[in-house]
Amino acid sequence: MPNIFFEFSMLAFEAQQAMWLRTLKLSAGGAAGDREAQLMVSEKVTAAGQAATKLMLGAAPIAIIRGYRRKVRANVRRLSKKPVKPKER
């Protein structure tokens, strides 16, 4: 039987990483910060809609948590990549 406590704990840990990395990106400002802010809001709206749909279709709570974890881990991987700096002339 899947351990929902473990899934919740890992979601909390991974979400904290994503928040920290996003805070760094947003605090840098500029166009990259603006894009990240827009992406963050749109991702949250989409994820909430998908979770609500899954709930209405009778999905188990652990399946919804795992869906969120997948999205959060993808964000952590994306935000952890070293940014490519433009070449100087």
Describe it for me?
It is built from 3 helices and no strands. It is an all-alpha fold and 89 residues long. It has one domain (4-79). Helix 1 runs antiparallel to helix 2 (30-56), helix 1 packs parallel to helix 3 and helix 2 packs antiparallel against helix 3 (61-80). The longest helix has 27 residues, at 30-56. The mean pLDDT is 91.
Gyration radius from CA atoms, angstroms:
16 Å
Q: Residue-averaged pLDDT, rounded?
A: 91
- Distance between termini? 59 Å
User: Rough shape?
Assistant: elongated
Give the gist of this structure:
The protein has about 90 residues and is an all-alpha fold. About 80% of the residues lie in helices and about 0% in strands. It has one domain (about 5-80).
List the helices and strands and how they pair.
Blueprint: H1 4-28, H2 30-56, H3 61-80
Quick tags:
89 residues; mainly alpha; 3 helices
